[in-house]
Each structure stands twice: as structure tokens, then as C-alpha cells.
UniProtKB/TrEMBL annotation, chains A, B:
Family label: Belongs to the APS1/VSP family.
Official protein name in the record: Acid phosphatase
Keywords, in A-Z order: Glycoprotein, Signal
A GO MF term: acid phosphatase activity
Name of the coding gene: LOC100839973
Record Pfam families: Acid_phosphat_B
PANTHER family: ACID PHOSPHATASE-LIKE PROTEIN, HAD SUPERFAMILY, SUBFAMILY IIIB ACID PHOSPHATASE
């Protein structure tokens, strides 16, 4: 058997078994991605590994429901969607979504009136999975139920990576003269100093105030604590909250939410 | 050159050019689906046709931003996403998303206290792309900018298909004894009778009241008109709005939105 002349130099060098693999493997991959295989999206590149397209579709539905605040009060990622969420967070789409939201924030920042001279134009930013990422922690726990002690151990290390797109927004707001308030449900007494250091090490410096959960709000829903803090800023201290950015709807609803709110994606956990 | 014995009967029969195609085509398909090719998602089956995966990813980001109310005030679907939105609406994922939201509504309905004997427990449902679908109209217009005259012509025909999942919810609410108010920004004077007939023909019967835009609200944002109507229901007529379902955030924000709101997916158009 002869190879066509223009293929000969390459193909003739290939051992037969490798050649056979080259012929068969792509066909197999295509069959598998047509849904012939089982579900293993924990490790597949998008569309090219055994998976159930319908299950991916349901997990996408669930994720969109979370972002639209239709799904509330969930304690863990649905079991069939753990692989999907891992893929979403680590293989590009989360970053793409984050960039999209940051583009919306930037367009809004460019369009609103700049801060007045009285120094009372404020933005409120959440910390966990807004400024600092807990992806490593939650991925290691396979997005299991909230575990306060384990989370405290993780946060105490002060090793949460900053989220670059949010850091850029933070710097823009600060440099434009907005007062940036970082508002976090983390416990002030036990996590105050490590959080301050973590923020500093990741480049979040020059904010107006870090507001963390004081003992009187322990055990209260995040929405209650955060509403109270924003109310204090707006009604007692006279700040105008021009924008508010968080990964949880509990950051963005309630009292004095601000002129406009931006929801950063987070399919990893739900905070009431 | 010899084929391995176990391949010989099949492979030896193949003409060389066909064999070459068999070797190369799958590799080419894989390269194309990895984003090397152009974008043609208007007609591709998911993941299996030349397309730009990155562009699909950006359109997905945009759609999620719409659902999360991060993208506001847009006049048309972004041009590179027209094919993506068509595919989303017509090839299964929209239906899957809708079913997901309806499951959330059902779980909520099952969990809340049933209507009291005073007949004042109400639900508010939007009409366009909540109860009745305008997909045929918007798809034919390739999701172009809002065209009031053309839309009026379409709506006048009274031919909008009912959305089955929402019809089931409607029937459940009505049969449980909730008063269902259908609240629509459609103009009452010109579209009142065709809307009533369209609803009836699609099975939406037994609602408490159809509330459409009266002349005094012409030209006002939907959010203003709908807030005023809900305020009237809640504060003047004493209804308790237990739930509120719409495809636009302007259905679900403002005054007296109800105990809980549900956002039905709609990446086709934005109503302020």
C-alpha cells in the first residue's frame, strides 16, 4: 500500500500502532462527546469528554437561577453539579463572567458624576469572593456545606488570592476619589488582623474603612448586619452610596443598597 | 506497508483518499470546535460545529448578566450573540431554565401558608413572555430594536402561544384560591380585547383581574406603571402580594413587589 505522495514523508515515519491511534482516537472522542459516554465533567475540557449534555444544561439552569436570585437558601451545590461548578470556576467561564460584570461597573463609573468635594461619595465592596477569592478552599471541600471552623482556619492564614478584575475596579474607584468601604460578614475579633493583612498583601490598600461583623451581630443573617452598616454610613454619616458590589444577593438587598448594585458570580455557596 | 492483521479486512477496502479524509476530518473538527474556526452558532448542534467557543462564552456571560440585572438599558441583543440567543431560545436551554424557575416557584407555593378566607392573598403575573410567548415575533425580527407599531400588529393578532410551564403555575395558584392579577404594560385601549381573547384561547381563565396600561401611564417606564398598580392593590385594596412572576426586572422591583419575586429568563429584549 502506498501513501499519497504529499503525505508520505510524515506518515511513513509513524509506527503502525500510533497511526491506528491517530485514526481511531478522534472518532472515539467525537462519539463520546455526542453523549455516548457517561458523565465525568469534573475533568473534561468543554465539550470533549464523556458527559451528559442534559445534565450540564440542568446545572447551567441552576447556576443562572442562583445569579438571578431565583434559587435561595441552598446549603450545597447540587451533587450532580459539583463537577460542573468546578469546571465553571476553573476553566475560563467564571473569569469571563467576572470580566463582563466589571465592564458593566466600569461603564457605570464612567457615566456617573465624579465624587463631590465633600468626600461623601462612597462605594461598598464585599470581601469574600468579591475582593478575595476562596476558590481554593471551597474546591478542596468539593463545595460542601458551610463549615465555620474550617473556614476560619483557612481565612486565618491570610492567603486568599486577590481577584484581579476587582482589584482593578478598587484602584479605579479609590484613584477617582470615591471612598471605598469594605463590608464583610467575617468576625472582626477573630479575623480582623489576618483579613487586614490579606487585603494589604493582595494590593487592596487605600480604602476608607474595613467594616467587619462585631459581636452584637454574631449569628445574625449577613443581610441584617450589612443593611445596618450601610444604614449607618448613609443615614448617620451622610455618605452617598453610589455603587455596591458583592457576590451574594444578601450584599445587595435590604436598606440603603446604593444607587446601583452589581452581582458578581458565585455558584459555590449561598449566604442568607 | 502492512496493516495489523485485525484491521486489514476493513481498512484494506478503503480507497486511499477516503482513508486520508477519515484520518484528517476528525482532527479538523476538533480543532474547529476548540475555537480555531469562525462563528456559526446559528445552525450548529451544541459543541459540534465550527464555532468560536470563546464567543459563545461571552454571549453566555452576557445572558447571565441580563438575568442577574447587571446588564441594563440594552436596546438590542449584541450583534455577535443573535445566533447564540436564537439557539438558546429554540434548542432546549430556555425550556430547561423555565422549568427550573417553575420548580422554585412550586416549592415556594407548597411551603407558604395557603390563602386565607378573606380572599386577599394575591399573586401578580406579567403577560408578555411570562404567560404568553412572543418568541416567534422577536425571532423573525432577529431580536432587533423595539418597534412599537410592528409589535402592536403582532399582538393584535391574538396569536401568542401560552407558555405551558407558566400556564400550569397559573392554574395551580387559581385552584389553590389565590387571586391572580395579570399585570401588563400593553396599552389597554388598543390591545385590551385581543389580549383578553389571546389569554382565553391559551387557557388563562379564572384570573381575578387583567390590569393593562391606561392612558395616564402612556410613555412612562413599565416599572413606574407596575409599581403604581401594585401599590393600589396592596395599599388601597388590601391585597397581600404573596408572589410576583415576570421576565423583566422592571416587573419585580419598585414598590410592593410582593413577598417573593421570580425572574423568568428573557435574553430577547429589555424593558425599563
Amino acid at each position: 500500500m502506498q501513501w499519497p505522495r504529499y503525505m508520505a514523508p510524515t506518515m511513513a515515519l509513524l509506527p503502525q500502532r500510533l497511526l491506528l491511534t491517530l485514526v481511531l482516537l478522534p472518532h472515539l472522542l467525537i462519539l463520546l462527546s455526542l453523549g455516548v459516554g457517561g458523565s465525568a465533567y469534573g475533568t473534561k475540557p468543554p465539550c470533549f469528554w464523556p458527559s451528559s449534555a442534559a445534565e450540564d444544561g440542568r446545572c447551567l439552569s441552576w447556576r443562572v437561577m442562583v445569579e438571578a436570585n431565583n434559587a435561595r437558601g441552598w446549603r450545597t451545590v447540587p451533587a450532580p453539579c459539583v463537577g460542573y461548578v468546578t469546571g465553571y470556576m476553573t476553566r475560563g467561564q467564571y473569569g469571563r463572567d467576572l470580566d463582563g460584570v466589571m465592564d458593566q461597573v466600569s461603564a457605570y463609573v464612567d457615566q456617573i458624576t465624579p465624587p463631590a468635594d465633600d468626600g461623601l461619595d462612597a462605594w461598598v465592596l464585599d470581601i469574600d469572593d468579591t475582593c478575595l477569592s476562596n476558590l481554593f478552599y471551597y474546591e478542596a471541600k468539593r463545595f460542601g456545606a458551610y463549615d465555620p471552623l474550617a473556614f476560619k482556619t483557612w481565612a486565618s492564614q491570610g492567603a486568599c488570592p486577590g481577584i484581579p478584575a476587582v482589584l482593578r475596579l478598587f484602584a479605579t474607584l479609590r484613584d477617582k476619589g470615591f471612598k471605598v468601604f469594605l463590608l464583610s460578614g467575617r468576625d472582626e475579633e477573630t479575623l480582623g488582623s489576618c483579613t487586614t493583612e490579606n487585603l494589604e498583601s493582595q494590593g487592596f490598600s487605600g480604602y476608607e474603612r474595613l467594616m467587619m461583623r462585631t459581636p452584637e451581630y454574631r449569628g445574625q443573617p449577613s443581610s441584617v448586619f450589612k443593611s445596618a452598616m450601610r444604614k449607618q454610613l448613609a443615614e448617620e454619616e451622610g455618605y452617598r452610596i453610589r455603587g455596591n458590589v458583592g457576590d451574594q444577593w444578601s450584599d445587595l438587598q435590604g436598606e440603603n443598597v446604593g444607587d446601583r448594585v452589581f452581582k458578581i458570580p458565585n455558584p459555590m455557596y449561598f449566604v442568607p
